[in-house]
TrEMBL record:
Ranges of Basic and acidic residues composition bias in the record: 119-134, 162-175
Coiled-coil region(s): none
Domain of life: Bacteria
Annotated organism of origin: Cellvibrio polysaccharolyticus
Record field: compositional bias (Basic residues): 216-225, 269-280
Protein's name in the database: Uncharacterized protein
Ranges for region Disordered: 1-77, 95-175, 216-280
Biased composition (Low complexity): 21-41, 48-69
């Protein structure tokens, strides 16, 4: 508002300033034209070098540019951004209108001061009033734009915090899934290792038990075989002893039967009459 008032109050200074800038720009343009006309033609090698330098600079600039952030889809942020864009357009339009009104105010002021007529003074007064109104509306628009920008920054901050929270939750979920999968794999690996170790220990213990049982059973079988062999030997001895007693008994019966026969023979001979040979 202060800048606008100064421009309205001192239109002569503004006009003189514009004239000075125009003169300086004219001098610069004439100097540039003279310099361009007096400059020597650039050789091809230097042009090629400058082109390569410009391309290298452009590549470095493009490489130095940061990557664009992801597109925001939050409705609050989009609404605040659209409001800021519309207010920026309004502010740009107001600034253009203010520059035009400043020129009009300066023109009417100079005209009224030169002519000193009532119509020119009224026109100058109306131009200044319209300029004041326009500056007030521009001021309100700028304040609205600042408020909208503040709301946009707040909504962006909230969106960034929310997106950070969501990304953290997603990362935690991914980490949980990864750790659970790794735990399942480690559990399966440990189970297989424990199973192999347990089977090895169990087979060793079972082999020891089987070895002890086989030793015990072999001892029992050996004892049973020994016992059965001794029993068979005793039976064989008994059988052999029985056969000898039978032979002895048969011999005894044979010897006992022979004297009986002799006794009967003697008895028979004793009962017979003596023969003549014996009598003579």
């Amino acid at each position: 508002m202060a800048k606008v008032d100064n421009a309205v109050v001192n239109p002569k200074k503004q006009s003189t300033g514009t004239q000075k800038t125009a003169r300086s720009s004219g001098r610069v343009s004439t100097r540039s034209t003279v310099a361009s006309s007096s400059a020597r033609p650039v050789p091809k090698k230097s042009a090629a070098k400058s082109a390569t330098r410009s391309t290298s600079k452009a590549t470095t600039r493009t490489a130095a540019k940061p990557r664009a952030a992801g597109k925001i889809t939050d409705p609050g942020v989009l609404k605040a951004q659209s409001l800021v864009d519309s207010l920026q357009k309004d502010v740009a339009a107001h600034t253009r209108a203010l520059s035009a009104s400043k020129k009009n105010v300066a023109k009417t002021k100079t005209r009224s001061t030169k002519s000193a007529s009532a119509a020119d003074r009224k026109e100058a007064r109306n131009a200044s009033i319209s300029h004041d109104k326009l500056s007030a509306t521009a001021k309100t628009t700028r304040s609205k734009l600042s408020e909208a920008r503040l709301a946009l920054t707040k909504s962006k901050a909230l969106h960034s915090a929310k997106s950070a929270e969501e990304s953290a939750k997603q990362k935690l979920q991914e980490l949980h899934e990864k750790l659970s999968a790794r735990a399942d794999a480690d559990l399966e690996k440990a189970r297989r290792a424990f199973e192999t170790k347990w089977k090895k220990l169990r087979t060793a213990a079972d082999s020891k038990k089987i070895k002890a049982a086989t030793k015990k059973l072999s001892a029992k079988t050996k004892a049973a075989q020994k016992k059965s062999s001794s029993q068979l030997a005793q039976l064989e001895k008994k059988l052999a002893g029985g056969s000898t007693t039978k032979t002895r008994q048969s011999r005894k019966t044979d010897t006992a039967a022979k004297p009986r026969k002799a006794a009967t023979a003697t008895r028979k001979s004793a009962g017979r009459k003596p023969s003549r040979r014996t009598a003579s």
